[in-house]
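Two proteins were folded this term; both appear here.
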Amino acid sequence: MSLSPQTRHIRIRVAEHAKKGRKQWDLYRYLTDPYLLADALELVIKNRGSAGLDQVTVVSVKGKEWDFVKDLSERLRVRTYQPGPVKRTYIPKSNGEQRPLGIPNLEDRVVQRVLVLLLEVVYEQRFHDCSYGFRPHRKAVDCVAKVAQQVYRHRHILEADIEKFFDQVSHNKLLKMLTREICDPRILRLISQMLKSGFQEPGKPWQPSGKGTPQGGPLSPLLANVYLHHVLDERFMEVYGQSSRVKLFRYADDFVITAKTQAELKTARRFLYIWMREGELSLKESKTREVDMTNERRSHQSKFDFLGFKIHLRAFTDNPERFWIARQPSEKARRSLKASLKEKLHVHLTMNEARDVVQSVWRGWCNYFRYSNGNSIIYRELHSVRRQIYQYLKRKYRRGGRPVPWRKLTKVAKTIWRPIKPIGVIPNHLDHKQGSLL
C-alpha cells in the first residue's frame, strides 16, 4: 500500500530531524494528523486480524473510515483517548507449549500503527546492520544468507535464543531507552499506558501487566527491536565494533554470533551473559550452544538451525579437502509444513477449497525456502504433501467404516495436486535480490 503524500512528507521531516542527531520533542502533533491516521487505518484493515475486547472488527468500519478517523483524531488531540487492555489468546508452539498473543482493540491498533510510522523512521537511523527482524526492506532470508556467507570465514558459531523475551521486557528500562531519542512526554506517556494496560482472557477478569510487550500488536516488534538494540547490539558494537573476527546476526530474539577461533567465541559468550543480566533477560539454555564448523568431513554433526534453515558443511565428493555451505529446510520446518496441512485440511472442504488450501500452504513454504540448496528436500516434501492428500481423501470418502482403495482416489487426488509443483530453487552462491555473487 502506498502512503498518502501528507504521510510521506511527515515521515521525511521526522527522518531528516533524526539524521541530524536531534531528539524528537514534538511528535505528538503528528499523531493527531487525520491523514496519518487514515493511512494507519488502511494498513490495519489490510492486515485484517480478529477483534479485540471491544468486538469492533475491520468490517464494521468499512464505509465509515473517515468518521472513525476524525473521531479518533479529536480524542487524541484533547487527550481523552485511553488504550484499552488486550485480549489474551494462545497459539500452540512446535514444542507443545502455548505462545500468548495479545490482540488490541481496533482503535488501539490504529494508534499503534501511527506510532510505528513515526518511530520507525527515527530508529532506522540508529539500528545497526546486524539487526534484521521487523525492519523495512530486510527479511529473514537476508539474515540467513549473510550467516551462511560468514561461515566460510568463521567456523565457530554460537547459536542463541532468549528465554520468553517478549514476556520479560522491563517497562522501566524500555521507557528509559526511548527517552534517548524521544523527548515528547505525551508520546512516552501514551506508550507507557499501552504497555501497562493489562490483558484479559475470555471468561476471566482483567489482569495487570508488570512487564513484557504483548505479541500481536503493531507496535510490539518495534519496541522489541529498540530494547535489544540497546541491550545487545549497542553493547556488542562497543566491544567489537566493525571487527572482522567476531560478528553478530540477529533476527528479533533469535541470533547467532560467529568467531574466528573458539577462544574468541567463548569470550563473546561471557560478554553475552553479562549483557543479558543487565537487560533483565536470560538465554534459553536448551537452544543456546556452541557449534564447531571446522570439521570438513561429510558429516551432519557440524550444523545449526537458524530461522527455519539448517546450515551445515558439505564436502565435495571428488575432493574432501574442499567444502561448501549448505542451506536446507530444517527438520522443524518440514514438520511444520505437515502440521499446517493436517490442521487446515478439513473433511467438509470441497475439492476446490482443498486445492486452494494445499496451494496456499505449499507455495508459502516453498517461496520461503527457495533461496537454499534444498532442491532434493523440496521434491521429497512434494511427495509427502501428495501422501497427505491421499490420507485426507481417504478420511473424506470413507464409506461404512471401510476406506476407499487408493487406486479409486487417484483421479480425485490429481485434481488437487496437479497444480502443486516445486518452485525453482535459487543457488546458494547467488544473492536473491540482485543476482550478484556473494
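Next, the second protein.
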Amino acid sequence: MTITGGCQCGSVRYALQVERLEKPHVCHCRMCQKATGGVFAALAGCAKSGVAWTKGEPAIYASSNLATRGFCRDCGTPLSFTYNAPEARFYVTIGSLDDPELAAIEIQYGLESKLSWVRFCEDVPGVVTAADADAQAFFATMKSNQA
C-alpha cells in the first residue's frame, strides 16, 4: 500500500511503499523533545527502500553521531528520523502523515524523560532505557550535537 505525508507548507512530500507502518511509538527522550519542540516524538517506521520523496526533499540535521532527522527547511515541520546504520529503519513523524490514524501507538520509549504531567497512552507498554541492555550499549556511544 502507499502511505503519503508531508510538511505543513507542502514544500516536502513523501510516499511510503509498505504493507503497514512498523512499530508506531512515542519517544519521551530529551533529544526527541528538543527535535520536535514537543513533549515527545511520535514516529512510525518502514524500510529505507520504501521511502520516496515526491516533492522537494527535507533538510537533514545530524542530531547525534548515530542518527539524523529530516525537516522542512521552509516551514520547519519535523518529518523523519533514522539511525545511520545501513540496515536501520526509516521513521516518519506520525503527525506528518496524511492519515495519522494508520499509526496507532504500540509502545513508548525513553520513559525516564517522560514529563510528570504527561498523561498519554497510559495503557501502552513502555521501556526505560536503563533497563534495556542493548539500548544502554548503543546509546553509550552517542555524542549529541544538540545544544
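The chain has a mean pLDDT of 91. The CA atoms of residues 46 and 90 lie 5 Å apart. These notes refer to the second protein only.
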